[in-house]
Structure formats: C-alpha cells, structure tokens
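Researcher: I need the complex structure. Ligand is adenosine-5'-triphosphate. Inputs:
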Amino acid sequence: MGVVLEGVGLTHAGGLPALQGIDLRIEAGERVAVIGSSGAGKTTLLRLLATGLMPSNGRLMLLGQTPAQLGSAALKKLRSRIGLIHQSPPLPPRQRVVTAVQAGRLGQWSLPRALMSLCYPLDIDGVEQVLTPMDLTDKLFSRCDQLSGGQLQRVGIARVLYQRAELVLADEPVAAMDPLLADHTVALLNRLAAERQVTLVASLHAVDLALKHFPRVIGLRAGRVHFDCPAGQVTDALLESLYANDELGPVQAQANHPVPQTFGPVAGVAPRCL
Ligand SMILES: Nc1ncnc2c1ncn2[C@@H]1O[C@H](COP(=O)(O)OP(=O)(O)OP(=O)(O)O)[C@@H](O)[C@H]1O
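Model: Output:
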C-alpha cells in the first residue's frame, strides 16, 4: 500500500486553504511527478505526505497507516519509513557529509547507537555506497558548508537512499543543479526508485524532466488536482490550462514558467485524465 488521500484539504495556520478536495491513490512502487505553478500547493502536499502536516479534513493513509490516528511512537516509526528530499537540505553547516548521510537512519537506530553515530562515523562503507551513484565519494569527509547547492541536494538524496525509505518524497530535488546534472539526477533517482521498488513522489518546476522521467504526472492548480495523467497523455493544452495566469496574461506566463513556446493562447481547456 502506497498513498491514499480521500477528500483531503489543508489550511495553514492563519492562511487560506492550500489544498482542497484532494483524491489520490498512489500504489507502492509508483513514480509520480507533481507539477504546477508557484503557490499551487506542491510543497504542502509533500509535507502532508511526510507527516509534517496533518490534513484539516479528509482522510490520509500512508504505507497502510492513518497518521492522524497514530501515537507518537508509532508516528516516529512510520516517519522512519518515509524519506523527504528537501529543496535546500537542512544540513548542519559544520557537519561532515558522512555524518549527514548516516543521519538518514537515526530514526531506525537505538538512542546510544544514534548518539554515537553523530560523534563517530559507524558505517563509512554504507555511506560510500550511496555517495557513489551521486558522484560524491570524494566529499565523504567534507563539511556541508564546503559544498555547492547542487552537491548539497545530492547529499540530501544520498541520505534518503541510505535511510532505505519505502516512500521517497522529493521537493524540487534538482532546483540548484545545472540542466545537464538535473536531468542526470532525476533519471538516477527514478532508476534507483524503480530498482528498489520504492514509491517516489517528486515536485518539479521543470516540466520537461517530469514528462521525460516519470510515468505519471499530477498537475496541481490552486490546491486542487487539475489533471492526473500518464506522462504520455499530458498534452500542451493541459499544461497551458495548468499554468494559465489570469493576472500575468499568456505572454508573461510563458516567460515565468518552463512551458514550451509551442503553447497557444490561454483558453478554457477542461482538464482530463483524472
Ligand atoms: N507556513 C505557511 N503558512 C501559511 N500559508 C502557507 C504556508 N506555507 C504555504 N502557504 C500557502 O499555501 C499555498 C501553497 O503553498 P506551497 O508552498 O505548497 O506551494 P508550491 O506549489 O510548493 O509553491 P512553490 O512552487 O512556489 O514552492 C500558498 O498560497 C502559500 O502562500
């Protein structure tokens, strides 16, 4: 069992509804990209799936469990099965890469082992194994504040691989990388997820990467599912209606989103594939 959302809504404290009436079913082992304009609710959805936020209404099931009904110990156990790759990984600047990656398993280790791992790297070989596909083995003992933004993002990915999470959530995981490295990293993330039969949900602003690498693409618009399609069925018209911006108008909207230039004028296109 992967992820089930039934009529899920979420309103941030003091804010407007960020998600409304979300119905989704993501099977174990599926790889899904979430796209949509700024403020559409992508990060909020991922934080919800990471149990960092709870639904304001509706029902959320993750890996066969209902987070809202769990006590703190059971919630901690569930969280240890879920890996979140952040846009800007919150890694302590002075921490060594080996320690930062090892921290992926803190939630699975006993307290003494977890504390010891923060002082002394207990599993250098294991960390090297996940840094190798990220091409970062030479950074094993570097401090996090000595890495570039793109390298830090790859450390964040390595950490989730090390965690051996069953559900991997990636929030703009390649935003700090150049286009070639971003393409390579998204391809790698998809390959590793497929090999390990991990469920992968990633938010991306790069529409081309979503369509190229993910079998399924969900378009979020104003906190609602605008479309939910196999990548091959995402048409220019669907993307145009997803990114249509009444305030900017069609020309500026194209300049502000990575939407191909072939899109025609904004029109009232009914979303499909739901
Ligand atoms: N902590 C918060 N408190 C109040 N409102 C919030 C909070 N976080 C997000 N929001 C609001 O929720 C809505 C969705 O935001 P969210 O960050 O999920 O969008 P997004 O699609 O990830 O955007 P972006 O692509 O710019 O990162 C926005 O209207 C935003 O202003």
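Model: Summary of the prediction. Residues 251-269 have pLDDT under 50 and may be disordered.
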